[in-house]
Write a structure and sequence with these properties.
By secondary structure, the protein is α/β, with parallel strands linked by helices. It contains 6 helices and 6 strands; from the N terminus they run E-H-E-H-E-E-H-E-H-H-E-H. Helix 1 packs across helix 4. The longest helix has 18 residues.
Length: 168
């Protein structure tokens, strides 16, 4: 895969499983260095900000990673379409869709964008990810590592829940 990719995790590591996105980035960044994968950039924050539109404008593919309370098995990757709706019903102030929309309007760039939702369970004030969420994290890491090694594409797994990956 020759495309320039950004993996951007967000969430609050001080709120247990809400830190899944940040932890994902930490692990992937170390793995990418060890495996000499040079076309991938990494970033993380507590939440998305409008300034992130500039950040993503320099990439062909963007993978946002966040903890999820959704009724999913362990993770799901969804395609992010631009939207000028500033705030969605998420735990964060600005949505991925809004960041992509800003990127298009301000920088005339439209990176292929996905959101990896990793199932979380506990949100208390503590800097620890639960055991079940860690298992979900490991499964989602396995998928993205496979994609980055050139064996799969992000598009192939958009809107496919966990079982599809494990059955291939």
């Amino acid at each position: 895969m020759d495309k320039k990719i950004l993996i951007y995790g967000y969430g609050n590591p001080g709120r247990m499983d809400d830190g899944l996105g940040n932890r994902f980035v930490e692990i992937m960044e170390e793995w990418a260095k060890e495996n000499k994968i040079e076309n991938v950039g990494f970033d993380s924050n507590y939440q998305l900000n409008i300034e992130d539109a500039e950040n993503i404008s320099g990439y062909d593919v963007v993978l946002f990673v966040d903890a999820s309370e959704e009724p999913i098995d362990s993770f799901i990757m969804t395609k992010v379409d631009p939207s000028d709706s500033k705030i969605e019903f998420t735990m964060h102030a600005v949505s991925c869709s809004y960041i992509v929309d800003l990127c298009i309007k301000m920088y005339n760039k439209s990176p292929e964008t996905y959101l990896l939702h990793i199932k979380g369970y506990e949100w208390e004030f503590e800097e620890q990810i639960t055991e079940k969420a860690t298992e979900n994290l490991e499964k989602s890491l396995a998928l993205v590592k496979t994609i980055l090694m050139g064996n799969r594409s992000f598009k192939e797994y958009a809107n496919a829940e966990t079982p599809r990956f494990w059955n291939n």
